[in-house]
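Exercise (ungraded).
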Amino acid sequence: MLPLGILPFMLILPLIASVIAYAVRGRAARILTLTVTVTELLLSFVLAMAINPAIISGDPNAGMKYLWNFVMGQIVSGGGSTELQIALGVDGISVAMIVLSNFVVMIATISSNHIHKSEGLYYALMLLLQVGLIGVFMSLDLIGFFIFWELVLIPMFFIIGRWGEEGCQHAAIKFFIYTHLGSAVMLVAFFVLYFVAVPHTFDMIALRSMGLPPMVQLGFALAVFMGAGVKLPVWPLHNWLPWAHVKAPTPGSVILAGILLKMGGYGFIRLGVWMVPDAFARLSIPLAVLAVFTCIYAAFTAMAQTDLKSMVAYTSINHMAWVLLGVAIGTATALQGAVYMMVSHGVIISVMFIVAGQLKYSAGSREIPQVKGLMVQAPRLASVFIFASFATFGLPGLSGFIAEALILFGSVKVYVWTALITLGVFLTVGYILWTLNRIVFSDANPEKPVTEAPWSDLIAPLITLIPVVILGVWPDLLLGLVSPVVSFIVGGVP
Amino acid sequence: MFQLFTPIVDLIRAILSPITQQLLQFIPSDWLGSMPALTLVGFAVIALVVGIRWNPLPVSFIGVLVVTIEMIVLDPVSSFGGLFVRDAFSDFFIYIILIVGFLVLMSSTLHSGDQGPYNFLLLMSFAGAILVVTATDLIALFLAWELMSTPTYVLTALSPNRGAVDGATKYFVMGLMATTLMIFGIALVYGVTGQTSLSVLSSTVATIWSSGPGLSPAAYTLMLAMILFVISFGFKVGIFPGWMWVPDTYSTADGSVTSYLAGATKKAGVSALVRILMVAFIVARLSWAPLIVGVSILTMVIGNVLALAQRKIMRMLAYSSIAMMGYLMIGLAAGTELGVAAAFFQAFVHALMKTGAFILVWTISVRLARDVTYDDLAGLSQRAPLASAMFAVLMLALAGMPLTAGFWSKLILFQSAVEVGMWWLALIGLLNSVFSLGYYLRVLKYCYMIEPKDGSPLKLASVPVMAVVLCVVGVIAFFVFPGAILDYAIGAAAGIVVP
């Protein structure tokens, strides 16, 4: 239907558009980027509708559809040959993540209307970022996976550092080095896995069905924890996140929180429970403990923040801990919940970051104590903010609730003490209501008036709220894609 | 194995074969393998004579092009009684030298390219470098080494930079010491074995090493010679014991000469090391592997730590190229076919990256008429968007990020280390690579994230910028098709590494 097949077409389209956007500059670059991201989103909807997520047992491709590969080079030595290649393929979880990333990139592009410095370069980087992001979710070869995984860093580095706020350069470099360090450890593990495998291969499907020695699996799982744990982030590795999120421009924060963190979660699922399930079963308790701790710790830290953006950044650490909990538990319900949490958090947190960025324009500050009387002075912005806040702490009927409920139902059945994570929910509700109380429902301060956000700035958050509601009332829309893959993972190696 | 350029080579050979047949009648068959080097010597003399009256740079360009065509049409054979041999391995490095040579000549249009002596010295040094990579005998290697090195001592001193003579003196004195150690090493080898030919030597070494678990005095002497060779050839490469001249000389020399030193003579040193370690002393691999591992780690750490402390871009790049050679030594330490192929691939990619980077900095430096510091790069993306973008690509390539060939070269090097069980060495290399982001990203930060003090456009000379464009295009193209070079690198490695 499409030249090369749908997956490579989805990768190449933004890549080419990126070069064109750099060349045309200015307003044309924005229009081009909007067109391309909307096209990508439609393509991913087509993909989601076309794919049959069911996996027949004994499928040699482990349920991966639309396979395509591009051999870049060959290493011929010692009688065998290894392909250095980009191999693409998707299953239900990948498709869900691809839809999410295309959606969030589109939202980020729409909300880039305040970027006026070097627009050509900005939109070129945005499109390059999209290539990296969807590439990660499509890759079926460790080398190709690593290429996309690292590719994401380059445009993100520039977006944070060039268009960010005061002090953003430092944040950009910290972000780059931190995440690169995690990836470096992961790369060594890739090589070890490659040489342990007989015959030597980087092919993830082959490695999965190979039945690797337990100790190798365990080492690999720890390395994945380093690589994906930095991105997710988990408690001792989270240090870069508040910096990068706060200093980045609003669209940068949206993509960071909306998708980059999900790369970590996806890394845990694809490289972890999908590829080395035995090792993750052994690591279950330590990971679950870490997840519960991270959740509560992040909730307390978020409560202490005065900058709204910083608070939202810690909220995302708090929520991504749920994903780790789901992965650590590894039962069908919990894993479904983990994927659900990634998608739902990806859209909700985008709204939160856009609102936080908008406050800077409307009220001149994001400091929570400084902004007062939002409901009186800016009812539209306040309504969006209230809605997004409710979604964040998981109000029933919105998508966050279903995710948390699934993970909790899954985990309490296995380890009853993981119910402690509800303390995190309790705290989250507390600090979010407290924030709403201070910003939205307070009396207006006549010395610091707040202007209403124009409709042009509210398009992006309003569009983003649509899936929050839909996923909140119709979970099967997403679970239909995810559950066959999850039961395949839980079913073990066929 | 499919090698991408084979059809093109065959085509050129077929087209030119009538002329080749005619010309071959005039060339003694014993010279045939060394014709590229000899031709360059001839063109060097012509350039010197032409330079009395006219601009000799076109002569040099023609010389390099003619030699490239010779490389393609002439059969790879041995010459001068087997002292110099053209095989897959030496051809790989000769092409690196010719590519770098061409780029260096392009960059020479900036400064001193219109002088006869400059062109003469440069072409003589190219010839020497080509002879170094083809030499298969210690004495021939020594002679070629001197032919390559001596002109560069003068070239570094010819720079417009005020500190040039200091840098050149340091280079010269340390170079002489390296030469002395090399002669001492050759003398030791000759004294023990009575041989200077590397291939004969390898069987002698095999006999000595096979004489039982306790090593004989002869073996100890040979090991001493081996250490001396690593020091003296490593001097040019800029690895651990002999790295100290690199930053001073690189930063004060004419930028074109610097890019030649970094792009080509370094690689000639690498090839000499590979010949000695992998051909002559391959049997003693277990004895020298720890030595090379140590050298590799120290070189990486020194290069990276000191590069972080620099303010001048040239010095930073000099230290970073020390670090890059540390990564390259990982491949030699692995000592397998894959490791050597990875080292070769790294040599090629490094030649592209560093030649481009040095030429670019030199072009900016000539335009500003001062040493380029980080502050001079502030806002380069607005003052010179193309130069800035190319700088960014080259820095990311040096850091080993995807979309650049630098990614593959590091990847395969680390892979080769893991293959022989040295995953810790790969991890050290990777941590160094992460550390190196500290200074590569600083360049990007200044280029893209800091507003310029003076926002006026910076117009750079077009010919050197073209040279950098070629490098950048190569760096990106060989990310998409690493196989184009990797196949040759593997072929070259397979030719010398006996499994």
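Further reading is listed at the end of the chapter. For now, observe: The first strand of chain B starts at residue 78 and ends at 79. Chain B has a mean pLDDT of 88.
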